[in-house]
Specification:
The protein is an all-alpha fold and about 130 residues long. The chain has seven helices and no strands.
Length: about 130
């Protein structure tokens, strides 16, 4: 593997940790960081290897099936506007393959720590507001 690809994987891992940090606080930065992950995904290359990994991963198919259940339900709904809104709300699940490819098993502690720090910060702010 090229040295630049290794560096991009390291950056992807830190961006994913930042994404886990921002999810409890606000979803907007998570979308921006997802865009950064997507750009890094394209810059890293190795698409054949990545798609091979995705094909073998059962969770990829589960998330895709979950999303397409909502799409299929549009066939018998009477309220297409509401159905389309529900489909748009579930599109976040289509990003799972990107997150899966960015995640590194050896960095799980990093991801969980970032998420827990964010949750602790939310709790501290909630107590601050309550006691103010």
């Amino acid at each position: 593997m090229k040295q630049s690809a290794v560096r991009l994987q390291a950056v992807n891992s830190w961006v994913l940790a930042a994404l886990f940090f921002f999810i409890p606080l606000s979803v907007a930065p998570a979308y921006i960081l997802t865009g950064v992950l997507l750009v890094l995904f394209v810059a890293e290359g190795r698409f054949g290897e990545k798609f091979s990994t995705l094909r073998k991963e059962p969770l990829t198919w589960i998330f895709a099936a979950y999303f397409f259940i909502f799409v299929a339900s549009l066939l018998w709904t009477e309220d297409m506007e509401w159905g389309a809104r529900m489909v748009r709300r579930q599109m976040f699940f289509l990003l799972f393959p990107l997150y899966l490819l960015a995640a590194r098993p050896e960095h799980m502690v990093r991801y969980v720590t970032a998420f827990l720090l964010s949750m602790a910060m939310c709790e501290a702010l909630a107590y601050y507001n309550f006691l103010d």
